[in-house]
Amino acid sequence: MSSVPEGRRSQSDFQARHNYFQLRDEVTKLMINDFGFDKEKYDARIEKYRQQNSKQENIDKIVERWKRKSDAFNRWFVDKECDAVLDILRRIESEFTYGNSIYPSDTPAKLFEYIERRKHITAAIAHCYILKQEIQYIIRTLPVDMNKYYHYEKALKTQIALFKGVRQADNRFLKSKKKTVDVSKDISAISDCIIAIMNKLKGNS
Fold first, then answer.
1. pLDDT tens-digit series, residues 174-192
2. What pLDDT, on a 0 to 100 scale, did the predictor assign at position 81?
3. Using CA atoms, how far apart are residues 159 and 6, in angstroms rounded to an integer?
4. How confident is the model at residue 47 (pLDDT cuts 50, 70, 90)?
5. The domain containing residue 200 runs over which residues?
6. What is the pLDDT of residue 64?
């Protein structure tokens, strides 16, 4: 497969990569800050639990035990979610980098290379949606200020739109210098290669 020549990369490619780097930096800072863990909201949860169990004997011990369990869970949850979010971020970058490194050549393999490029860029888009859902899960679980997360939701929406823009722009690869391309010839050539390989495998079995 051909890699993309530096001078032939589109502006949308650069914009998508630049925006993603900014998004990753911001999400990394969010992880460093324990996803915006809000101590006031957490203390309010503790107080609510106390009120709900106010008729219990030894309420102070009950609340203290529940608080220790909650503290342990929060530490565990933040650590696990940092790993999960970091893995998704890496997958987004690796899929887009992989796809963007494939430049369909003027050979019978052009259609296959186009499909392979599109597959990885689509995977990058899919992982953006996965990251969005993971962040929603964090918001539902931790005591955080939801208003502070609107920025990340907007940034992800922009990133998805940019990746889709790159994918849409890739339709140019289906056009030749004569503005049209006989895709059927590419399909026929690829099919012939596949049939030849299958026949060879049958002969060796």
1. 775 444 445 555 555 655 5
2. 98
3. 22
4. very high
5. 176-205
6. 94
Q: Report CA-CA distances (Å) from 196 to 116, 124, 146, 205.
A: 21, 33, 58, 14
Q: Are residues 78 and 116 in the same domain?
A: yes
Q: Which of 28, 36, 27 is nearest to 74 (CA)?
A: 36
37, β-bridge pairs? 144
The pair of three-digit structure tokens given for residue 175, joined into one six-digit string: 């056009």
* 142 within 8 A of 127, measured Cβ to Cβ: no
Number of Cβ atoms within 10 Å of the Cβ of 197: 10
Number of domains in the chain: 2
Task: Report the candidate in 160, 57, 172 with the shortest Cα–Cα distance to residue 114.
Answer: 172
Q: Are residues 91 and 185 in the same domain?
A: no
Q: Domain check: are 105 and 191 in the same one?
A: no
